[in-house]
Amino acid sequence: MSLALRLEHVSFAYAHGTPVLRDVELEVQRGEFVAIAGPNGGGKTTLLRLVLGLERPTSGRVEVLLHRYGYLPQRAQTGIDAPLTVRELVGVGRVPRTRLFGPLGHGDREAVREAIDRVGLTPQADRRLSTLSGGQQQRAFIAKALAGEPELLALDEPTTGVDIEAQEALAALLVRLRDELGMTILYVSHEFGAVEHFVQRIVLIRERVVFDGAPSALPGVWHDPSHVHA
Amino acid sequence: MLDLEFMRLAFGAGIVVGLLAPAVGFFLVQRRLSLIGDGIGHVAFAGVALGYLLDFPLVLTALVVSVAGALSIEGLRARRRTAGDQALALVFYTGIAGGVVLVSAAGALNVNLFQFLFGSILTVTRSDLFVIASLGAGALALIALLYRPLVAVVVDEEGARVAGLPVAPLNALTAALAAVTIALSMRVVGILLIAALMVLPVIAAARVAWSMRSTIVISMGIGLASVLTGITTAYYADLPPGGTTVLVAAAAVLVTETISVLRG
Ligand SMILES: Nc1ncnc2c1ncn2[C@@H]1O[C@H](COP(=O)(O)OP(=O)(O)OP(=O)(O)O)[C@@H](O)[C@H]1O
Ligand SMILES: [Mg+2]
User: Fold this and answer.
1) Contact A92, B155 (CB under 8 A)
2) Fold of A1-67+151-230
3) C-alpha distance from B182 to closest chain A C-alpha (Å)
4) Domain range list for chain A
5) What is the pLDDT of residues B6-29, one digit of tens each?
């Protein structure tokens, strides 16, 4: 295995704020499927943003050796009132794989179709996003994150509002992507549900890394990872 | 009506403006920057005044000054990310104040400012039409060429940044396109009303469209129809074309709203 990303002594505070992350150490190998959990405000989203280069650490170093990122922000569906279809949204996710100029090529349109198919939205592909249910919208955003065939997939609570069946389908899909394409996956969630059986590693964040290991090694007090009381 | 040279020129300019304004306006509306057109319009006024002062072609001075104004609004917005409206206010008022000062300095306060504020069908010259048509076609071609990255920034700016798109240059390009549109539309629709032609057709189209692409195409159709109807009405009723054009566009919003309500 080779290194995918590394955080060294990373601390971070938002402007004029108290530190959100302190001295975080984290190494992730290529092809790892890492679950990230922790209480509300623990710093999970901030950690993803640091990895993706959307924020810079106040001190310490963030090093990412992968190039194409797929990102599903937390609550992605809010704010989308543009009149776009599922296919148009997922097409936007294809951007990292295409030239800047001109329309999508045949292969790109095929990849978009495949990403839509993977999340089971083919029947809704040409409907406006605003006419879909919340869970269907969330799946469309997952397809968008997949469409660019990313090396690093960062999903921030992807299963919010998604039914059990789709959660299981997503978990199986992520494992397949990891196995077939060697994708590195960071998966933030409070309830792991179906995914819990697939991840080899869980990282609990509460300002720092308070646990990093196999889910089975999780101490009893932390068994519900959303309520970490140190 | 079409055997009159000035009407042919007005229609020629109107066709370009009717297609271009909604195409650019679409990206402003989706980014919730609908009012930026108004701000740039005020800056264009300073450009017109500067043209009088320097005795330069007014379309060109308006063009240069509005692009500079638009880029400073975008620059201020990008640096202090939450204060978009304050950046707008600063440039907005500086533009209109600068315009008044420059116009009086040029001793041109008595010129017919009304035609710049609300448009005129009498003032499009041959060289104006040449500038309007060539820059208008160039702007439309640029939008077609960069359609996907422009949409990507509109749909999800952070996602576009993560994907490695040059987000800041694309935003600056959108602002510059808005400024060019405004300077080109000034003669026909007027500085005070051009923003409406960028926004209303898009709002109307979004009510009945079935995708992003169809929204843009329909809004361009509505923009074109509004300008052509507006100019024709202005000719027969001796009214400022900016006013008639924008009233038609506003009516289009009512019509599409009704259609979408009836459809349920
Ligand atoms: N844009 C921001 N500006 C200032 N403070 C912020 C900002 N975003 C988050 N914070 C603060 O940073 C801390 C960590 O937030 P973060 O969003 O990373 O937590 P999280 O673990 O993702 O929580 P959740 O489970 O609720 O999604 C919180 O205390 C929050 O108040
Ligand atoms: Mg979060």
Assistant:
1) yes
2) Rossmann fold (3.40.50)
3) 24
4) 1-67+151-230, 83-149
5) 999 999 999 999 999 999 999 999
